[in-house]
Amino acid sequence: MENSRLRAFAHRTVGSRPARVSARVLAVVLAAVVGGWLGMTFGAKVDTPVGPADIGMSLAPSWSGETVIDVRPLGTLSFDSHNGPLRLDLTIEAVHPEVAEEILKNPRWADRLPTTIEADVISGLRNLALRAALFAVVAGFLTGLLAFRRLSRAAWTAAGSLAMVVVLGGVSALTFNPRSIAEPRYTGLLTGVPSLVGSAQSIVTKFTEYRGQLAKLVTNVSQLYEAGSNLPIFDPDPGTIRVLHVSDLHINPLGWNVIKSLKDQFKVDLIIDTGDISDHGTKAENEFVKEIGSLDVPYVFVRGNHDSMTTQRAVEKQKNAVVLDGTAATVKGLSIYGIGDPRFTPDKSVQAAGDESKSLLDLGRANAAKLAPREWPRSASTSAPDKIAADVVAVHDPTVGRGLSGYVPLVLSGHVHARSTQLLPSGTRLMIQGSTGGAGLRGLEHDEPTPLTASVLYFGKSSHRLEAWDDITVGGLGEQWIQCERHIEPDPGRTISPESPQAPSPTATGSGSPSPVALASGANVPYASEVSDGRRHGTGRKP
Q1: Is the C-alpha dihedral spanning 436, 441, 442, 444 positive or negative?
Q2: CA angle 527, 531, 533 (to 5 degrees)
Q3: Looking at residue 371, what DSSP letter applies?
């Protein structure tokens, strides 16, 4: 009697046999899905040659099917290539320069390239599918064994994982959209280069046209990587301090696009802006600087001759902003000293006098008296409380920077809208940035649009010395090209010392250090603080 009661209780608790079978089937299906997904995630990866490149292929879970080509550090291209919860990731692991060069020079290669690429891609996808199935089966079997502790159910789980891979692969193949190759989505710097894929006229109505578009894509990516293979070798360690140097945005919103892309792609630690973020220094232009708050990295700023004090105060209010004006700050480990430009000359009606260069040079020398390089022997004069061991000085006009020669390893500047660098006899390197904003509207005044420029600087973690830098140039308005040049600092630890044994004296007449107002007056232009609202109050010498 007692046993019958127990059986009745068990029957009521567990339910009918069909319910128990359904529960077991559901458990096996869930285990198969989990195991298959884990197997594909961690095992569905292959490397395969495609034309001149070695391509890494992998599958990953995704809410919508797509294919993503990773072309770092330039960005990514995404294609709506298929439906289904699978994403195909393609990573360019390497490009063989000799093959890429042959493709670019030999017309016969261009004829064979579509067929070659098609065969290579199909071969790679076949290997990827086989590997995905194998790892899904193994992972499904192990998942079933752990979950049920029975070989029979583990085998059913493995079969379910295999079925899942077959179904997902079939859905992806049946929903493949060849038109997607001509309709990519871009991230990073590639947002400025839609011509990477080519013209989309009469987009891919036949598979042969798709092959041609794909060949165009591979050829152009090969060009990018052939150029990249010629860059000098520099492998920054994890502690390297990465600084993005920008200048002369002149309220061009495209400049922010370049800055954000470079910040993300090169993983910069901070940004240094050497002035002329504005064009006329008016309050209306202050809206432009609000983008600083969205960058999420420190933004060091020095005023340019197009920036009024109103502009400077607007920058100061932004999250992440560090404004330097005859002051220093330690940012991400770097000691940075900044000098705001003493002039306010927002338009050509404000003319500078002929002695402007001397006045600006004197301003640099006056500030040099506050600096002492780290490697100088410590003494009463070099260790004085007002001496600053700056790693970098940021100025707007390079003439001011030349006055700092021998007192700092690196001076960053802008102003002239043309990038250059010079190693001064004192050991100081003077770097002049072009225009990250393509010189604003002024960039349209020339026959060729002014390119947008910026540089990524690499500093040693302990030495705080510049070790290498990448100069990035993006084609101006209406142009679609990108150029990256790498430079290696030949002697990062060189000695920095003034060219003359005498410290530079800003007081040639012995009357004391001139103030910025006096220097600006000597150049016959308004001083920025005299026109804080951004409006010009006159063109002559202040009475």
Answers
A1: positive
A2: 150
A3: B
Report the sign of the C-alpha dihedral through residues 532, 537, 542, 543, in that order. negative
Share of the chain above pLDDT 70, in %: 67
Confirm if 496 and 406 have CB atoms less than 8 A apart. yes
Q: Look at phi and psi of residue 310 and say left if phi exceeds 0, alpha if psi is from -120 to 50, else beta.
A: alpha
Q: What is d(CA 278, CA 288) in angstroms, rounded to the nearest whole number?
A: 8
CA pair distance 38, 466, nearest whole angstrom: 44
Using CA atoms, how far apart are residues 316 and 270, in angstroms rounded to an integer? 16
What are 90's two structure tokens?
């393609």
Three-class SS state of 112: helix
Q: Can you tell me the distance from the alpha carbon of 300 to that of 295, in angstroms, rounded to the nearest whole number?
A: 12
Q: What burial letters (b/e) apply to 365-397, b meaning 16+ CB within 10 Å?
A: bbbbbbbbbeebeeeeeeeeeebbbbbbbbbbb
The top-scoring range by mean pLDDT among 53-67, 128-142, 202-216, 371-385 is 128-142
For Cα atoms 326, 329, 334, give the angle at the middle one, nearest 5 degrees: 125
Rounded to whole angstroms, the Cα distance separating 373 from 450 reads: 36
Q: Which fold has domain 241-531?
A: Purple Acid Phosphatase; chain A, domain 2 (3.60.21)
* Orientation of helix 151-174 relative to helix 107-148, angle to 10°: 150
Q: What is the pLDDT of residues 498-524, one digit of tens each?
A: 876 444 443 333 334 444 444 444 444
Residue 302 · residue 316 · CB < 8 Å: no
**Taking the alpha carbons of 380, 386, 390, 393 in that order, is the dihedral positive or negative?**
negative
Specify the DSSP class assigned to residue 354. T
Q: Are 215 and 117 in contact (CB under 8 A)?
A: yes
Secondary element (H or E) of residue 26: helix 17-43
Domain boundaries, the chain: 21-227, 241-531
Across residues 253-268, what is the average pLDDT?
86
Query: Could you tell me the two tokens for 458?
Result: 């690499």
**Tokens at 181, concatenated:** 């190759």
| Mean pLDDT to the nearest integer, 132-160 | 87
d(CA 222, CA 295): 32
CB-based burial of residue 11 (10 Å sphere; 0-12 exposed, 13-18 middle, 19+ buried)? Answer: exposed
pTM for the model: 0.60
Residue 223 backbone phi and psi in degrees, to 5: -60, -40
Q: Can you tell me whether residue 86 is helix, strand or coil?
A: strand
Return the structure tokens found at 176. 């493949």
Which tokens hold the place of 272?
Answer: 């240094």
Q: Token digits for 401?
A: 């920077």
